[in-house]
Design a protein that fits this description.
- The protein is of the alpha+beta class and about 160 residues long.
- The chain has a single domain (about 5-135), classed as Nuclear Transport Factor 2, Chain: A (Roll), CATH 3.10.450.50.
- Helix content is about 35%, strand content about 35%.
- β3 and β4 (about 75-85) form a beta hairpin.
- α2 crosses α3 (about 45-55).
- The protein starts with a helix and ends with a helix.
Length: about 160
């Protein structure tokens, strides 16, 4: 069987097909459900996340920097790169497409049982990607709200 990491990168490297085919494709790689960063996640959620990725980015590609293999486990460090063309959900709100190319450094720890990934621990440099997209500048006015009123020094006296 093809190594799990190769299957993961191929799966996430292109937009999921419409309908049930995407679920079948993801279930050929991932257990359903699986543990993702300690929480139970169903394959439908992974397909949703892949669609969000490919709605926000085109020309998505991965560069594997290093891997470590052990029985039932693969650790990978890779760069994910793409051109930001659509809305990107962030903790600060949706960021409209910027047309900029951005990359994220990612570390994945995959647990594999019976040729399916049953657990993933993933860490990605989302702040770095948001800085490349100048998201903090773009989203800051929406977050700031009205300015605070000036402080009267008399109110500070005890």
């Amino acid at each position: 069987m093809e190594p799990a990491l190769n299957r993961v990168l191929r799966l996430w490297g292109s937009a999921p097909p419409p309908g049930e085919q995407a679920l079948r494709d993801f279930r050929a790689v991932y257990a359903d459900p699986l543990l993702l960063n300690g929480s139970e996640v169903f394959v439908e959620e992974l397909v949703f996340r892949a669609r969000v990725l490919h709605n926000a980015f085109v020309e998505v590609k991965f560069e594997v920097l290093t891997t470590v293999e052990a029985p039932g486990r693969t650790v990978a460090v890779f760069r994910q790169q793409g051109r930001h063309v659509g809305p990107l959900p962030t903790p600060l709100g949706d960021l409209p497409g910027t047309r900029r190319v951005a990359e994220t450094l990612v570390i994945d720890v995959l647990t594999i049982e019976n040729d399916l990934i049953t657990e993933v621990w993933a860490v990605g440099d989302e702040l770095g990607r948001l800085m490349q997209l100048e998201a903090l500048v773009s989203l800051a006015p929406r977050l700031a709200g009205p300015p605070d009123p000036p402080i009267d020094p008399a109110d500070m006296a005890e």
